[in-house]
Amino acid sequence: MSDTNTPRMIQVREKKSVYMHWFNAGIRLLLLLTGFGIISGELVRVVPAFWPEFMQGLFGGNENLILTHSVLAMIWIGVFVLFILFNLTNIVLPFLKNVLVLTPSAAIRDVKSMVINLLQLFGLMKDVPIPPQGRYNGAQRLLGTMIIFCSLVLAFTGLYLFFGPQFLNFSENPLYGAIFRWSLVAHISSVFLVLTGIVAHIYFAIVEEPECMEAMKSGYIDVDFLKHHNKLWYDELKQEGKV
């Protein structure tokens, strides 16, 4: 006789997607630590002065720290490019289809569900039902869209910040310098946007919905959790005979 209290688990992520998630998390942490160590001027400071001093001392100077940061970034870009090329149709395109918010109506719908969800965390609007959610809820879709676009900005601006001074003559064309400065602004702004989103992501994964953390560790998630939190996705899986 089966125990009805035992959670029924279903695989929702392939192992390579799980590995890619943790690779992304780990290398972003290294990029954050090294990146915040690079900027050390009095005029522009994003972290306390001790951190750039510590990191630049640890790596034997700012040039070595910049090189380390840039190599890590190029590894990050390269691994993602390869992952996309080899998993475009089976993982990447379905993920983008589910997570990207590209129309005003989708944005309004997702913002509405996110606001209701957040207010309910503070004991408000408890009687207001959250609209049925797909594979990703409104907050996850908005966060995912922001992180994807910010990651593209980080990749392109980062490449220019590293290779621009090496291959372009900034003294001959002031436009190169202007692009460099605005690239730096866009780069740092994107870092803080992503960092804000990741803090929220970690909180929800650990505190509010630990089932999602389990899915990112093993690839499996509780079917009853899906039925309650991701009804539209549950219905799709049921139609496909997977639950």
TrEMBL record:
Domain of life from the UniProt record: Bacteria
SUPFAM superfamilies (alphabetical): Transmembrane di-heme cytochromes
Transmembrane segments: 21-46, 66-88, 142-164, 184-207
InterPro entries noted in UniProt: Cyt_b561_bac/Ni-Hgenase, Di-haem_cyt_TM, FDH_cytochrome_b556_subunit
Source organism per UniProt: Candidatus Marithioploca araucensis
Membrane topology: Multi-pass membrane protein
Keywords: Cell membrane, Membrane, Transmembrane, Transmembrane helix
Descriptive protein name: Cytochrome b/b6 domain-containing protein
Compartments, record wording: Cell membrane
Pfam families linked to this entry: Ni_hydr_CYTB (PF01292)
Domain Cytochrome b561 bacterial/Ni-hydrogenase residues, every copy: 20-216
